[in-house]
């Protein structure tokens, strides 16, 4: 699917400086070798302090989407890090919504990009994709065929199905699929940038967060009433943390059990989603139907933008 039509890819860098320049260049080469047009390569080397340019420069990436005559097919974040939150108060969400909403446009990224995705969903109803980024995924020395196939399938499938194995109990729920990086979601609590989703399916992932930090953030979402409005939680990849003797058996399974007990919500684990080499791509804000039967789990998504 990715090679049959030439796509226009626009790079943006709303977060941290891309310290792995070679990886980003490999990512550009991946798309170019497939015959796709890549614009905005200048953002790869751009730098101010720890950021991928000054706030004004990074805001200009979004202004370009408002000003350009023809929208790109895919808007892809170079990398995560920190920095997107600084931009939110200065963005013209009304104009972004008018330009981007209901267009066959794929905005894709994860990690720090979650802040931008939640703000777009909250402020103007723009659905985006939580998925691979230029440097870390498309620029990997050894590309993940799993990640690539799921990315292109999400970009082009009006009805998207994701299947995996889980230990959760039998389940059949529907709702808006939303979420992303848990640390970013917790940081947006109490701000206008976090959407209010009723009956939602909350999908979470993170990296370098110990189980107790993960539990603390989920309890924050519970105590402010966010989890009470959800139908289910899907736990993706939680990588990079190390348990010690002090934990004495306390692990992520302990976290999921506590959160389920406290909230009454089913926590469905096992989804390859997040900072791992293998990751699915999910449209945030799409309609979802989650089914668990035995160890088989299926998430069906629709209502998201797809490339023509």
UniProtKB/TrEMBL annotation:
GO molecular function, one term: serine-type peptidase activity
BP-aspect Gene Ontology terms: proteolysis
InterPro entries: Carboxypeptidase_A_C_sf, Class_I_gatase-like, LdcA_N, Peptidase_S66_N, Peptidase_S66C, S66_fam
Pfam families per record: Peptidase_S66 (PF02016), Peptidase_S66C (PF17676)
Residues of the active site: 111, 205, 275
Domain LD-carboxypeptidase N-terminal positions: 10-131
Keywords carried by this UniProt record: Carboxypeptidase, Hydrolase, Protease, Serine protease
Keyword Hydrolase part of the UniProt annotation: yes
Domain LD-carboxypeptidase C-terminal, first and last residues per copy: 174-289
Family named by the database record: Belongs to the peptidase S66 family.
Protein's UniProt name: Muramoyltetrapeptide carboxypeptidase
């Amino acid at each position: 699917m990715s090679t049959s039509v030439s796509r226009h890819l626009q790079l943006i860098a709303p977060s941290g400086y891309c310290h792995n320049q070679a990886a980003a260049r490999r990512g550009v080469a991946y798309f170019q070798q497939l015959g796709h047009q890549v614009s905005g390569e200048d953002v790869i080397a751009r730098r101010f302090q720890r950021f991928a340019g000054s706030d004004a420069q990074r805001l200009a990436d979004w202004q370009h989407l408002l000003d350009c005559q023809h929208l790109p097919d895919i808007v892809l974040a170079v990398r995560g890090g920190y920095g997107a939150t600084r931009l939110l108060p200065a963005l013209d969400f009304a104009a972004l919504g008018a330009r981007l909403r209901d267009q066959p446009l794929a905005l894709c990224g994860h990690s720090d990009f979650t802040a931008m995705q939640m703000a777009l969903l909250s402020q103007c109803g723009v659905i985006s994709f939580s998925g691979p980024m230029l440097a870390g995924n498309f620029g990997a020395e050894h590309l993940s065929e799993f990640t690539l196939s799921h990315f292109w399938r999400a970009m082009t499938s009006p009805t998207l199905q994701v299947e995996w194995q889980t230990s959760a109990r039998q389940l059949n729920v529907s709702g808006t699929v939303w979420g992303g990086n848990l640390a970013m979601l917790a940081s947006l609590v109490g701000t206008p940038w976090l959407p209010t989703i009723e009956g939602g399916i909350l999908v979470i992932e993170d990296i370098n967060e110990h189980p107790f930090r993960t539990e603390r953030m989920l309890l924050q979402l519970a105590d402010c009433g966010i989890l009470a409005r959800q139908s289910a939680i899907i736990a993706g990849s939680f990588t990079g943390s190390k348990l010690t003797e002090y934990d004495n058996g306390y692990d992520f399974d302990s976290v999921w059990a506590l959160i389920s007990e406290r909230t009454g919500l089913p926590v469905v684990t096992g989804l390859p989603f997040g900072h791992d080499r293998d990751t699915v791509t999910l449209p945030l804000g799409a309609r979802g139907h989650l089914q668990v039967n035995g160890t088989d789990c299926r998430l069906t998504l629709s209502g998201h933008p797809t490339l023509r």
